[in-house]
Amino acid sequence: MATLRLGDTAPDFTAVTSEGTLNFYDYLGDGWGILFSHPADFTPVCTTELGTAAKFKGEFDKRNVKMMALSVDGAESHKEWIKDINETQHTNVNFPIIADEDRKVSDLYDMIHPNANDTFTVRSVFIIGPDKKVKLTLTYPASTGRNFYELLRVVDSLQLTANHKVATPANWEHGEKVVVSPAIPTEEAKGMFPKGVEEIKPYLRLTPDPTA
């Protein structure tokens, strides 16, 4: 299986989950999606991650983003694990977890990296746009928990840059200045961005966040 790359179409699938059998595309509808994998149920770092994801659901909902997690254990195991997550992380898991016992989805998304472990999925993240294209991929080692503030920040950047001819600079957060696309001449940019264009270099122009 070739690695999924940015701009590739995210594979569709139908799978058993902790919330019943779901089709991925139907679940996402016309919105954005985050698919993230876990090596197994009852693992400590992933327990904290799923609890954190549940707490962030309101923020993702505001951005029209639906989450779906994956583990290679079965649905009944997931339901028992969810009880632990809810208890220890003081939340309620509010999104489906795929029971990928046959590794079908793991293979579709190249989530098993033999040099890390030849049976368990690595901890991958895929952000998928309304066009069902892969917009971002991240792969974490088992020892490092994911940063959900960063995932929110990336979604904000992806949604902004999908609708405006700008890019976001290092460490950008919603509301901060953005970079004008280098393809736009400065005089044209001044017409496009009425809040003003600051020219630091001919190729480096900043403008206030057009959505703020």
From TrEMBL:
Active site residues according to the UniProt entry: 46 (cysteine sulfenic acid (-soh) intermediate)
The signal peptide here is none
GO terms (BP aspect)? cell redox homeostasis
Q: What is its EC number?
A: 1.11.1.15
Q: Where is the Thioredoxin domain?
A: 4-160
CDD domains registered for this protein in UniProt = PRX_1cys
Record flagged with keyword Transport: no
The record's family statement is:
Belongs to the peroxiredoxin family. Prx6 subfamily.
- What PANTHER family does the annotation carry? MCG48959-RELATED, PEROXIREDOXIN-6
Protein name per its UniProtKB record: Peroxiredoxin
Q: Which organism is it from?
A: Flagellimonas sediminis
